[in-house]
Amino acid sequence: MSGKILLIDDDDSLRRVTEYNLTSAGFEVVTAASGRDGLTAFGAEEPDLVVTDVELGDLNGLEVLNEIKKMSPDTPVIVITAYGTIDMAVKAMGEGAFNFITKPFDRDTLRLSCQKALEMTELKSRNRVLAEEVNRLSGLEGMETSNSAMAALLEMAVRVAESEATVLITGESGTGKELLARIIHRRSNRHEAPLVAVNCAAIPDNLIESELFGHVKGAFTGAVANRKGRFQTARGGTLFLDEIGELKLDMQAKLLRTIQEREVEPVGSDRTEKVDVRIIAATNKDLKAMTAEGKFREDLYYRLGVIPIHIPALRDRPEDIETLAYHFLRKLNAPAGVRFSPAALALMKSYGWPGNIRELQNVVERSCILRHGEEIGPEALGLAQSAAGAAGCEALTLEIPPEGISLEEVEKELIRKALARSNGNRSEAARLLKIPRHVLIYRLEKFDI
């Protein structure tokens, strides 16, 4: 294992011999002839490990140890001395030394001690990265909030996680419904099993049954082998059914039976299979209204909504915008000095965010790329023209204002307003705008909304 070692010893000959032995063992070695020089070298070189003698003339090794631990608590320090006593060894170890070696020592003793110290440092680093990843998956990362209603929602989600109840998460597109589902799963007793996500809107109607329940060989054209469905894949874990409102009534009936009986019948099979999964569903539609219209089964609605959780739109919690914006900057590994100007923050807080947190994340990423210097100004957000377009639309009549108006901005703002009015439902937004749904989708992609 390689690594950079700072060797501090005032004995020239011993320092040169030790440097040679460590270099021969594959380590990069930086040397210092006194305690003060060693501390200076430590700040400049940022070594992975420090090896210091106790008797250094100006400072002793324990003083060097204390100073290094103040500057970098995680850097291991090996203390060597010709005057080893049990008391000194205990004191050195008590003050944070990784090891205490008495002179004379053979080259392998120091080499092995250095190797173990560096292995420990690497292990700590890996554990730190792993802990951050676990926190990303199981913590509340991306759901930071200063809003009391949102804080209460997250607290309830953590409590609900420990139960087996089905959960129905509602909210506009981009509010973080899947993220909340993953938080619930990671906090549940099922966290060691998979969370399997299914976007019900993305699977063709003729394939959704096979996708959920699996099929046997020969069940239909193209079924050349038995295939497990998402229920079987999620066995022991959680099945997240996103866009549940897009399911047709016949599939709703089959899903209800599966949830109630805890068994599936693969397509083309006459046998059922027991499945042990927890169901979390999500939608941006008003399922209660759909049940009144006969578009969603009432019994399935109540079966899914044992625990209903509604995530508020970002525009309803503007106090979270700054927190989330800086969270996304950190996620992008932006340099430490990068910040939003007061004008940029004010613009973000006044904007309607029809795309919610997903749109905010995209805006932050774009602004981080387009910024000039460390401060992100409003011009880098790409929202200034939209805000101007919004102001024009508010005052828009059938006459064009004398100063003129951007037709593209008017169109973009009308699309945003339709999406906000329809709670992100594209079909409803297209109806409000009196255009086909595929035309709306084309414009969403064109305008990057």
What does it look like?
The chain is of the alpha/beta class and 449 residues long. It folds into three domains: 4-134, 3-Layer(aba) Sandwich (Rossmann fold), CATH 3.40.50; 148-312, Rossmann fold (3-Layer(aba) Sandwich); 315-447, Orthogonal Bundle (Helicase, Ruva Protein, domain 3), CATH 1.10.8.60. It is built from 20 helices and 14 strands. A five-stranded parallel β-sheet has the order 2-1-3-4-5, with helices on both faces. Strands 7-8-11-6-12 form a five-stranded parallel β-sheet. A two-stranded antiparallel ribbon has the order 9-10. Strand 3 (49-53), helix 3 and strand 4 (77-81) form a beta-alpha-beta unit. Helix 2 (35-45) runs parallel beside helix 3 and helix 19 (426-433) packs across helix 20 (437-447). It is elongated.
Count of spatially separate domains: 3
Number of strands: 14
Query: Uncertain spans, ≥5 residues at pLDDT below 50?
Result: 384-398
Strand-residue fraction? Answer: 5-15%
Tally of separate helices:
20
Which strands sit side by side, in order, in the main sheet?
2-1-3-4-5
Fourth-tier CATH superfamily name of the largest domain = P-loop containing nucleotide triphosphate hydrolases
- How many whole angstroms does the radius of gyration measure? 31 Å
- Provide the residue-averaged pLDDT: 86
CATH third-level topology of the largest domain: Rossmann fold
Largest beta-sheet details: 5 strands, parallel
Principal-axis shape equals: elongated
- CATH C-level class of the largest domain: Alpha Beta
Helix content: 40-55%
Please state the oligomeric state of the protein chains shown. single chain
Termini Cα gap? 50 Å
**Architecture of the largest domain, according to CATH?**
3-Layer(aba) Sandwich
Broad structural category: alpha/beta
